[in-house]
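Query structure, 275 C-alpha cells:
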C-alpha cells in the first residue's frame, strides 16, 4: 500500500518515526511529509501569505522511506504532498503518532486530525492516531494497531473516503483491553494565562491550561432526533473508552452541518428567521 504519513509534532518526533518505520517494515511504500518544527494545536490553518519550503531528509529513516521537512502547517504538509511532492496519490493518509491525546473537543484544534482531514477532503481514506500521554508509554502498541488495521483492505477500505480518529491509551500493551468504535466526547480544559514580562519589560501571556478528565456525555445537549440519540447512547465516547483502557476509534467528518437543528429549522419546528 502507498501511504503518506504526516503529523503536527514535527519531522523529528519519535511517534511519527516509530509509525513510519513499522509501516515500511510491514512492506508498505511510505512517504513522510511533516512540519519542520512542532505545530501542535494549529487546527486546519493554511499558509497563504508566504512561501512554503520543503527539504528532503535523508538521515532519519531507513527502509527506503522518502521524507520531507516542510515549513508549513500540518494541513499544508498533506496538501503539498498530494499536489506537488508525491508522483502518485497515496492509498491512505496517516497522521501521527501524536504525542498526547486527541479526544472530544481536541479535534477542533488538533493539527494531527487536520492533517488527516486534509486527506479525506481529497477523497483519500485517512487516519489520525494519538498516544494519550506526552511523557510516558511506548508508541509500539499504537504502531502495531495501525499496521494490523492496514494489513486487511476489507477492514479499512481504500476506496472509501473514511476518516478515523484513533487514540491509544498510554499503558503497557498487555493492559490494553481491546479496541472500541466510539463517538466524540467532551474534553474540558482549565485555561490559565500566565502573565510575564519579556527582557524589554513588555507584557506577554503564555497559555498554560491543563486538560480535565471529563466523561460527561454530550448527547443531552445535541439537537438530534430522539431515536438517533437512543442509538448513539449505546456507543461509548472516546474519552470513556480511553478511561477504560480501550483503544478508541471514532469516525469523523468535515461537514459541520448541525443536522438536527437544520431539520427543525427547515421543517418549521423552530422559528429563527425574521418574518
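Result returned for the query:
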Amino acid at each position: 500500500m502507498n501511504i503518506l504519513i504526516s503529523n503536527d509534532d514535527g519531522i523529528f518526533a519519535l511517534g511519527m518515526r516509530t509509525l513510519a518505520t513499522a509501516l515500511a517494515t510491514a512492506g508498505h511504500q511510505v512517504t513522510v511529509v511533516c512540519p519542520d518544527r512542532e505545530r501542535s494545536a494549529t487546527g486546519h490553518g493554511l499558509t497563504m501569505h508566504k512561501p512554503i519550503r520543503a527539504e528532503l531528509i535523508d538521515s532519519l529513516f531507513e527502509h527506503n522511506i522518502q521524507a520531507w521537512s516542510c515549513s508549513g502547517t500540518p494541513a499544508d504538509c498533506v496538501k503539498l504532498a498530494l499536489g506537488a511532492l508525491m508522483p502518485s496519490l497515496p492509498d491512505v493518509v496517516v497522521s501521527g503518532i501524536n504525542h498526547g491525546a486527541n479526544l472530544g473537543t481536541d479535534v477542533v484544534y488538533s493539527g494531527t486530525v487536520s492533517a488527516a482531514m486534509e486527506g479525506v477532503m481529497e477523497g483519500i481514506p485517512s487516519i489520525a492516531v494519538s498516544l494519550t500521554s506526552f511523557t510516558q508509554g511506548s508508541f509500539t502498541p499504537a504502531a502495531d494497531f495501525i499496521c494490523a488495521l492496514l494489513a486487511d483492505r476489507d477492514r479499512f477500505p481504500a476506496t472509501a473516503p473514511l476518516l478515523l480518529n484513533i487514540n491509544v491509551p498510554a499503558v503497557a500493551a498487555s493492559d490494553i483491553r481491546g479496541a472500541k468504535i466510539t463517538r466524540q466526547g467532551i474534553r474540558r480544559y482549565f485555561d490559565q494565562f500566565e502573565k510575564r514580562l519579556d527582557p524589554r519589560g513588555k507584557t506577554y501571556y503564555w497559555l498554560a491550561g491543563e486538560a480535565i478528565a471529563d466523561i460527561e456525555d454530550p448527547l443531552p445537549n445535541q439537537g438530534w432526533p430522539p431515536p438517533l440519540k437512543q442509538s448513539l447512547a449505546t456507543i461509548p465516547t472516546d474519552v470513556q473508552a480511553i478511561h477504560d483502557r480501550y483503544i478508541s476509534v471514532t469516525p469523523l467528518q468535515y461537514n459541520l452541518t448541525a443536522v438536527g437543528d437544520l431539520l427543525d429549522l427547515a421543517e418549521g419546528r423552530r422559528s429563527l428567521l425574521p418574518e
